[in-house]
Each structure stands twice: as structure tokens, then as C-alpha cells.
Amino acid sequence: MEPDFEEEPLQAAPPTETRWNRIRAWFPHAWAAMQPDGPVRTGAALALVVTALLPVLILGLGWKPGVGRFLDLLAGPLIALTIAGFVGLGVVVAVKVAGLLPRFVRWVGVGAIAALFLVVGTIASTMPAAIIVSVLGVIEAFFGGAIAVLVVRGFDGAPLGKKILVGVSLALGLAANVFVIYWFASRGTADHLTKVPDDPTVVSQLQAPDPSKAGSFKTLTLTYGSGADRRRADYGYRVAFKTASVDATPFVKETPGWRAWLRRWYWGFDLDHFPLNGRVWYPDGPGPFPLVLVVHGNHGMEEFSDPGYGYLGRHLATHGFIVVSVDENFFNGSWAGGLKAENDGRGWMLLQHLKAWKQWNETPKNPFAGKVDMANIALIGHSRGGEAAAIAGAFNRLRYYPDDGRVELPSGFAIKSIIAIAPSDGQYKPAGQPTPLENVNFLTLQGGHDADVSSFAGLRQYARVRFTDGQPHFKAAVYAYRANHGQFNTVWGDSDYGWPKGWVLNKKPLLSGAAQRRMARTYITAFLEATMLGSGDYVSLFRDNRAGKAWLPSDIYISRFEDSSFRPVATFEEDVDLTTASLSGATIEKRGLTLWKEGKLPYRGGKGSFENSVVYLGWDRNASAVRPVPKEAGRYTITLPADASPVAGVEGATGALVFSMAQIDESPTDEATEQQATPKKAGGKSPSAAPAPKPKAKKDEKPERADLTVELTDRSEHTARLPLSAFRRMPPLLTERFTKFWTESDNYGKSEAILQTFVLPLSTFAEAGFAAGFDPAALQKIAFVFDRTTKGVIVLDDVGLAGK
User: Fold this and answer.
1) Of 8, 71, 427, 708, which is least surrounded by CB within 10 A?
2) Which of 750, 791, 741 is nearest to 121 (CA)?
3) CA quadruple 525, 527, 532, 538: dihedral positive or negative?
4) CB-based burial of residue 554 (10 Å sphere; 0-12 exposed, 13-18 middle, 19+ buried)?
């Protein structure tokens, strides 16, 4: 039976060559259909221009050329656009001459990318800026091109591939822009913060009045100055009395050219006519009252910094101090540049103000005639002003300027106390030497999240303060973990970078501005009350911050302290011999330690140092067999000379053992030494039986918080032993995060070691139940025994004895 359909003849499959030819023929057409045409390129170009234009305008808003409050809003962005335009034009010209890129990229793309890089480069280091600009530029170009497709043509008739590309570009561009806005607007993260349980040690709280609260005096205020200030009425027609100008040319180096012209135009005076301007808060009473000068640091000169200490001036005036916020804004930089090597000038200016106050106190018609206690003066400085206050204290002991003996200095004032808030150090060195301070009370404050002066530079000046006149003085340093740089000044606020760079700062961990300023009021008022008004109870706050816990905002505080009763035993500054101490005749030995060395304590990230020698002590009771450790715990012992006279004046019943110590996150084994100690075969190869390497610590895993035993032995071999934690716990290892960038460690490095001063009353050791017969007055040996934690590394400094 025949089939009812006609069978088609079999056909051979097309050869592979023919199918590949069809694919090759289709691909150019598909690719051509997806190429950006005129409207797409225009959209991409406009997107790039807008992307670059907005941050340029934002950057410009932070530039205040000084043509007026409202005109500055236009002038700053115009200047920024002009600069960005020239930068972009320069790049375009270079590319055009080279003829390497298509016309569209030459004229629009490169110029916009260059302008964008100019702005992003001001708020990020080079690598993040390059990555951000590259990724953002590509995304925004695709986003703009996709928008152009929708506006000009829509999707009608577009190939599927083009629809997918446009859709992806729109989604990616929208997501990227939302993320960028959110990232800049967010305050960051506090996930990195070190959380520490309360110290269980019971500390008696001070019964003195809370120094952060207002005192009993009603306060008044006025300003003095040139009377001719072009920018501020408070130093213009509103001054209570006028002052003469001073010549700052020996102390200030000015950048020549148009920048100098702009500064003269802005201020209306030159270096030889710097004014003496000040805001004064003072008690309503007959006096005489102690005088306190406060000076700001470097900030944009157009955003005046001196009003930012009004909170402090008003508060101290209620406690009976005359307070002056000194105007030194004309020393500051601006968008067009700043002065050079001016910090000695800042300090010299404070002495010029003191010279004027001495005269006013002696002038019958002056509002302050007879009201100023010129035998009781304090200086307070913030940032560069903190260094300036120390410079003024050093200059006050000199007759002539160290760098030019032709210049005579105003000096000889009764400066009793100096306070440096987050100070710089070493920007000026008198005669090339670090600034010395002698026989003056000193306090320095520092925030752990200070993104401007990110290392505690004030500790360098703290170490250089010397007490040689036999009078009672003390020095102290306070580190507040969540404080920043700017919130000590209400004008500067929570941004330690200028506009718009401040948007990348991680602000979430910070204390509130009110809390940080309460901390400042507490410490500064207590310090001035103790050193200028004789309120000795407040000294306990600086020996141990826990005594004023109720007065301070909740935070982690680390502090240093030393008074004029301190007798050094081992400061590690005297030589390079590990077995000798600072006290003549004292010796040092160690047993069972895996690390023992002396060296300079580095700044954060190793960029510079505190210029202070310490000893590093490491122990590991699980150390490898390569470097066997005795069964007993590691021990570091200082033996005092047999003659008790070197520590005379420190009575056993009232004296204390004093030292400063911190734990650091380092290996307790000197790896280089361990490698040298490894036995080797002939030919220099290590034996196959070498111990297996230790497992690496987990990422972000911190060592166990260290504890140890302090052991004291008298000349009759009676011993008293107490754990360090019986007095106070070792400071925790702190972690800071200053910015929201993932590469911030490239700029800031690791956390730095801030040492805590421990004051251990000798009477407490004598009262210990097991210390039968121990006589603190006959102290012979001081030992640190590392028996309470398995391993760790500590740095130790300034071991000595002091009156309690």
C-alpha cells in the first residue's frame, strides 16, 4: 500500500563553515545596532558633566574668598569651576595634541573625568580616588546614555541586546547614585569600638563640687581690639577699648605673590600690623582674678575660630577666672594658601596679649584696672594653639628670640599652668631643639578619634616638662577614646576635615559635642582650680580618672600623671644598656621573658615617634622548644642600690610605686632572634625536626587582656605581692576607625600605644595579709611577674617612687 504523503528527500546538513559564516555576518550588525549614536553619546557626556559639576560646586561652597556673606556663596563655586575648567581644558588639549582618543572622549569625557578626579582627590587618598573616579565615571556615562535612549527614542524597535544593555545601565546607574548619596550622608559605623566592662576595683569618689557645673559668679563679657576690623564688628566699632598693633614679621613667613595680596586685601593689614583682638568673659566682682588666655589652632581663616571657646570662657568666669579667647585667625590658612613657619608667632602673640593685660591692670581708667591677678596666669591652646601655648611658656623664660637675637621677647610673666588640647608638636623648634617647659603645671587632652592630629603629640611635650625648683607642680595627660579634634571648639564641630572632605569621616563613634565639651570643662576647670586656686582635692582626678567618674561622660579614659615628688628609678632614657637604670646604682635583670628590648615608642602606624624611650617586655608560657622558657613565669626585676638615700623624701607610709604601662598587639617573641637561635645543619639549612609553625591568629582577634603581679621586696628579704588588677586593670587594646574608606589604614596605620600611669600605694603592700614584716621604707627590689596571663607584650616606662 502506498503511503498517503510524499516523502521529502533527505538533505545534507550545511557544512560548519557555512553556519560560522552566518554567525560572523550577524555579529557586526548586532554590534552596530548596540553602538551609541549621537543622542546616546550626548546623554553620556551630559551625565559625566553633571557628575563632575556637582562635586565641584560643593567644593566651591567651602571656599570663602571674603567678598561678603552672600556673594561668597557664588564666588567660591565660580572659583572652583574656573580651576576645574582649566584642569579639564589642560587635559583635553594634551589629549587633542596627542590625537590618541576619539573626538567625543577628548572634548567632554576626559575633561569631566579630570574635574571629577580633582574633587575626589581632595577627600580621598590616590588609590581610592582613582578607583572611585574610574568606576563612577563608567557607570554614570552608561546611565546618561541609557536615559538619552529613553528620552529620544524609547524602546520601540530596539534590538533585544540593546534593551538589556539600557535596562542594566539604568538599574546600575540608579543604584550607584543612591549608594553614593547614602554613603556620603551616613555617619559611618561604630562596630569597631572596643567595649570594656566596668573595672570592678572600688575607687573612692571625690567629694569636691562637680567642676563641669557653673560656679557662683555672675559673668560679664566684652571685646577689645583694633577697632578697625573690616570683617567683624566685635573687633570694629563694638570694642570696649582699642589696642595697638604689633609687628609679626620676625616670626612669620609669607608666601609671596597673589596669595599675599589676597590676604592683605581680605584683612586690610600686613604682617607688620597684626592686631591684638580678644573676647573676654569675666566675673562680676572686684577681684583680683586669675587670668586665662585661650587660643585656637589652624582653621579656615574666613570661618573665625575664636568664638568657639565661648562655652569654656563663660564657664570658667563663673568659677572666678578672667578668660580671653585670643583672635589669631589672621595666622590661619585659607582656600588660597596659608602662612609658613608661623607657630612661634602664635606663641609670641600670647605674650603680647599678656604684656597688654599687665598695662591695663595698672591703668586706672581701664575696665580691668586692679582686677587682674597677674601673679596667677594660665595659657590654653587647641591644635596648633596647643603647641603655641607651650612655645609661649618657653619664650616666657627668655629675653631674646632664639632664632634671632636682635628680637627682644616680652617675658617674665607668672605663667603657672599650661593646657594643650589635641596639640601639634615640633612645627616650631626653638634654635632647632624641641620646646622645653620647666616649673609649670601642664595638662594635655587628646581624642582617640581625632582625624586631624591623629597621634597623641601632646605626650611629647608632657615628657619634656621638668620640675626643678622644689615647688609643688604636676603634669597630666588624658586620652578620651571617643573624642575627636573639632568638638573642643563649637565652630569646628564634628568634622575634623574641611568641606567637603569631612563627608568621608566616620562620625558615628564620636561622643556628642555636648558630652565632649563637658569632659573638657571637667578636666580644665579641675586643673585650674587645683593649680591656680589651691583646690588640692582635684589632683586626685588626674592621678585616677575613676575618682571623678560621676562627672565625666561614659567613655574609656587613659591618663598619665607625674608630680614634683616623683623620684625616677627607671625611665630608659639614660643609655643603651638593658641592665642599667636611671637611678645611679640600680640594676635590671630578667628571667623567662621571650622579648626584652628598649626603644622609642612609635606614633600610630610608625610615622614618627613620641620621642620617648620605653622597654618592651614579652612573655609566652606556651613558647616553642626553639627558645625554651623556664617553668616559672617571666620576671622583670629592678634592684635599688643598698643606700636608701636616693629615694629619700618618699616615706613608706605615704609613698607610692609609680609606673606607666600599656599592652600592645604584637608578637611576644622576637622573630629575628628566634630564627637565629634555630639550630642549623651544615650548609646553613634548618633541621627537618624543627617545630611546626604556630597557627596564625584569627583576623581581628585581639590578645587576652593582660594582667600581672607586682612584687616588692625589702632589704630583709620580706616580700609583698599583689596583682596589678587589684589596683586597676590594664588599659584595653583600642581600635579606631577615622573614615568610611576601606583603605584608611594606609593613612592612619594601626592603633598606637597610650600608656596608663599606675599609682600603687606602698602601704597597701604592707597591709597585705601574707606580707608579714615587709617594710616599704626599706624597699630593695621591684619585680613585674607575668604569671596571670598566658602570653602578651607590654611597654613599660617611668618607673619610680613618689609621695602619695
Assistant:
1) 8
2) 741
3) positive
4) exposed
Q: How far apart are CA 105 and CA 88, in angstroms?
A: 12
- pLDDT of 776 over the 70 cut: yes
Percentage of the residues of the chain whose pLDDT score is greater than 90: 54
pLDDT classification of 671: cutoffs 50, 70, 90: low
Amino acid at 21: N
Mean pLDDT of all residues in 231-254? 93
Question: What would the grid cell of residue 650 be?
Answer: 618618699
What is the DSSP track for 265-307?
HHHS--GGGB---EEEEEESSS--EEEEEEE-----TTS--GG
Q: Who contacts 147 (Cβ-Cβ below 8 Å, separation ≥6)?
A: 43, 47, 170
**C-beta neighbour count of 35 within 10 angstroms:** 9
Peptide bond into 288 cis (omega under 30): yes
Q: Looking at the DSSP assignment, which residues form a beta bridge with residue 756?
A: 661
Torsion angle, CA of 115/117/121/126, rounded to 10 degrees? -150
Q: What is the sign, positive or negative, of the torsion defined by CA atoms of 560, 563, 569, 572? A: positive
Q: Which three cell numbers stand for residue 491?
A: 565652630
| pLDDT value of position 697 | 47
Distances (CA, A) of 226 to 240, 302, 309: 10, 18, 21
Residue 801 CA to residue 655 CA, distance in Å, equals: 7
- CA 231 – CA 222 distance, rounded (Å): 17
Q: What are the start-end ranges of the E strands in 551-608?
A: 557-563, 567-570, 587-591, 595-602
Identify whether the C-beta of residue 731 lies closer than 8 Å to the C-beta of residue 622: no
Q: Which stretches of 309-374 are DSSP H helices?
A: 310-318, 343-361
Find, among 240, 212, 242, the residue nearest to 227 by Cα: 242
What average pLDDT does the segment 683-689 reach?
41
pLDDT digits (tens, 9 = 90+) for 442-501: 999 999 999 999 899 999 999 999 999 999 999 999 999 999 999 999 999 998 887 777
The answer for residues whose C-beta is within 8 angstroms of residue 386's C-beta and 6 or more apart is 297, 419, 420, 421, 422, 423, 424, 444, 458
Q: Nearest 5°: phi and psi at 727?
A: -100, -50
Contact in structure between 141 and 40 (CB atoms under 8 Å): no
Q: What is the pLDDT of residue 340?
A: 83
| Cβ proximity of 644 and 694 under 8 Å | no
What beta strand segments (E) does 682-790 contain? 709-714, 719-723, 756-761, 779-786
Residue 378's closest CA among 307, 301, 326, 452? Answer: 326
Q: Which residue has the cell 545596532?
A: 33
Instruction: Examine the pLDDT at 99 and tell me if it is beyond 60.
Output: no
Grid cell, residue 132, equals 572611585
Evaluate whether 92 touches 157 at the Cβ level (below 8 Å): no
pLDDT higher for 766 or 379? 379
- Parallel/antiparallel/unpaired status of strands 441-447 and 415-421: parallel
> Which amino acid appears at position 39 of this protein?
P
User: What was the pLDDT predicted at 772?
Assistant: 80
Would the pLDDT of 756 be above 90?
yes
Quote the cell numbers at residue 349.
602673640
C-alpha torsion 672→673→677→680, nearest 10:
20
The phi and psi torsions of 469 (rounded to 5 degrees) equal -100, 5
Sign for the CA dihedral angle at 20, 23, 25, 31 comes to negative
State the pTM of this model: 0.83
Structure confidence at residue 648 (pLDDT): 45
